Amino acid sequence: MAEPKSRHGCLTAWLVLMIIANSATALMYLLRSDVIRRAFPDAPGWASPVLIVLALFNLVCAIALFQWKKWGFWGFCASSIVALVVNLSIGLGIGPSLVGLIGVALLYGVLQIGKENKGWPQLD
To answer: Per-residue b/e over 48-76, b at no fewer than 16 CB within 10 Å?
Structure first.
């Protein structure tokens, strides 16, 4: 019988933060898209729906990671790259656009923390 998986507190906290942040982001894009359009008037019309889908996909990826699915990490990586391209296309600038990639690095780092309860080797 396989040993039960255990996650350390930092990984749990990071995944909870990802779930909360991506839920809030999706709601913000859904409910306040007019504010975003005013802030970025030259943004293409497809940008807002794509960002909503990315936030919802990140939410799914965070839940997958909570359930020990490695595809959740790779999905988060892919969506961060797409978000980088979208952010650059709406005129956000390179600095703020790269912030999403920092999230990928932090997630990878948190998955590497720990000894017997390191997250990365436990992912299926």
So the answer is: bebbbebbbbbbebbebbbeeeeebbebb
Reply yes or no on whether the pLDDT at 1 is more than 70: no
> How confident is the model over 77-121, as pLDDT tens digits?
999 999 999 999 988 889 989 988 999 999 999 999 988 889 999
What residue spans define the domains of the chain?
A: 9-122
pTM: 0.90
**Strands of 1-124, DSSP E:** none
* DSSP helix/strand/coil, 15: helix
- Judged by phi (left if over 0) then psi (alpha if -120 to 50, else beta), residue 8 lies in beta
Cβ-proximal residues to 99 (8 Å cutoff; 6+ apart), any chain: none
Largest CA distance in the chain: 58
Question: What is the per-residue burial (b if ≥16 Cβ within 10 Å, else e) of 4-25?
Answer: eeebeeebeebbeebbeebeeb
